[in-house]
Amino acid sequence: MVWELQRLVDGLAERSRRSVAVDDPRLRLLAYSAHHTGVDSARKQSILQRRVPDELANYVHRHVPKGSDEPFLLPLCPEFGLTIERLCAPIRHRSTLLGFLWVLLTEPPDDRLLEWVRDAALEAGDVLFRESFIEQIARSRERELVRDLFSHDRPVREFAASELIDNDLFTGGEATVLVAAGPTSEVLQDDRRVAMELALQRTRREFPARHCLHLVRPDHGVLIVAPGGTSWPSRRLPEVGAILRRHYLAELGKHERVWVGIGALHDSLATLDNSYDQALRAVDVARFVRTLGVVVRTEDCGVYGLLAEIPRDRLRKVGLHPGLQSLLAQDDPQIRTIIATVESYLDNAGEVKATAELLSIHRASLYHRLRRFEELAGIDLRNGDDRLVVHLGLRLARLTGRR
């Protein structure tokens, strides 16, 4: 495809003695000619970065005549670096927009130039459609193999792993899974599904070829990453999760809620289903334990990760200590403060000094709150079993939405 587009672009540029370029529908540069005239900052940015800001892409789409493949003049916009007149021809196959053909102008276009541009856009449409069809077949095969990586059948996983590597779709070496999901396990609505697909695609561009795969499942998105040999070593994977969230929120708005879980690294694609399960549990934990943040590694889940391995419906049936359950049911700010104090005390392994410093209170106040908790809950915090029951109960309550 690249060679055919480049030949087409160079031919039109030579005939017209003007600078020509072809972009995809999101204005990612596919081919461009030598410059027969001056260029503006928008063209320079496109060449240097192979893409333009989303704001500029949206500006172009607002001015494209709906359903038309006729060349048109794009209005100048110095704010986006559009300071030179340019002729734009939408590249379509039937009614599907496949890209844009651009010609920088030094004078108004004549009929001959318009005819050349129409012919070039038609030819470019054939080239891009063939490539799009081939890509769809390859992408469909990739989706099937990625889906099979998470099969319960080990031979199926092993076959998918070998196919991905043997067909140069993915590199060998260590890999991990990132899962992005919203606040519930309900099937994604169409707009969220599209947003998830776009977010995963854009995050993949952060990685070299063969280092990233993705899949949109009914209620979440999956990103498979091989960090070795990239600018994203494993310690920076939370940053990748943050990028994935940012792209998703850019489509739907900052009010949208989404979490990213990161599984552990595995040295074989055939065992990546374990990393996938860990990433799913990390998301599940992060939804309820807000103190962990919105991008959570499986190793950061602590005891919540262990509890999350128990099916959620069974966890909800696990009873809490009656005294603790009674306190959690009360909507009293003082009671909530006492519970939070006890949790901090237990998190600090019963260290009074460390807990008092963390809460910025006097030790006498801490002792008073602990005694008050014991009185109200009927629990002896000096007893190791009671401390364990309370600590696990507080974790369980948070994980199941009971606090």
From TrEMBL:
Transmembrane segments: none annotated. Residues 339-396 form the PucR C-terminal helix-turn-helix domain. InterPro entries: CdaR-like_regulators, CdaR_GGDEF, PucR_C-HTH_dom, PucR_C-HTH_sf. Residues 177-285 form the CdaR GGDEF-like domain. Pfam families: GGDEF_2, HTH_30. Belongs to the CdaR family. This is CdaR family transcriptional regulator. It comes from Actinomadura decatromicini.
